[in-house]
């Protein structure tokens, strides 16, 4: 559905924020992981046709979205990282306003708004001003506006910021349901946001794409790179400065560490089965080593 070809982007002449990105995406959820500043929002803004890239091509169903953005826009839903709402409007008023911007006819708009309010559990508060909403409710309104045109491509940029754990889970479940018949691209720096729902995982570092495959393949690739080790407090202080410590748990002997490393970090370290978070750290560590 979506092909990204040799995409490179510069905001300033000497600093590429996206470097030669290539991706072929089809239906399902793609989790885009990367630290702050990795280039996730820049990539998403380009895919949402809000920014033209410096070089490269993006094809939606075979047609260039750079030359013909309108072609994708009709089928696009976008929830940006910073989603502002008009506080004094009610949800119904806000969604009607966005429907007008999306040029939906009145009948389609009314029916879509009713369906979305129902499925996002917002019907009972639809006539309240948005200023009275919690973070999770606002995020559901954000998703509702992105889904008004029943988009075939849904882009959500760091959607779980500000949500409590329960709201996070609800949001994940909702995305999993929505992915049945569309492509969803979700960016985050929190691995648990996409764990269990992403069909594939893309990892970015310094504007480069370092990984694109399933979560299982990612975990397999990290085998023999994750180690558990019991150390004294002094040894922990040493290891902290030389190793990627994924987890440190204090106990009566000092610390039980989980270390991500291509080599056995200590003769007493034993290899353990990587979690998705460990595997993500392993990709980042390898990317840092390549850059160094
Ligand atoms: N409009 C802009 N003008 C200049 N530089 C920018 C602009 N937008 C982003 N950048 C820079 O591009 C780099 C990538 O930023 P981007 O927002 O795409 O990353 P990100 O992975 O989404 O991170 P975050 O989660 O912090 O938003 C950063 O160094 C950022 O400072």
From TrEMBL:
SUPFAM superfamilies in the record: P-loop containing nucleoside triphosphate hydrolases
Name of protein: ABC transporter ATP-binding protein
PROSITE patterns given in the database record: ABC_TRANSPORTER_1 (PS00211), ABC_TRANSPORTER_2 (PS50893)
High-level lineage: Bacteria, Pseudomonadati, Pseudomonadota, Gammaproteobacteria, Alteromonadales
Keyword tags: ATP-binding, Nucleotide-binding, Transport
Domain ABC transporter: 2-231
PANTHER family given in the database record: ABC TRANSPORTER, ATP-BINDING PROTEIN
Family: Belongs to the ABC transporter superfamily.
Pfam family, one: ABC_tran
SMART domains assigned to the protein according to its UniProt record, in alphabetical order: AAA
GO terms of molecular function: ATP binding
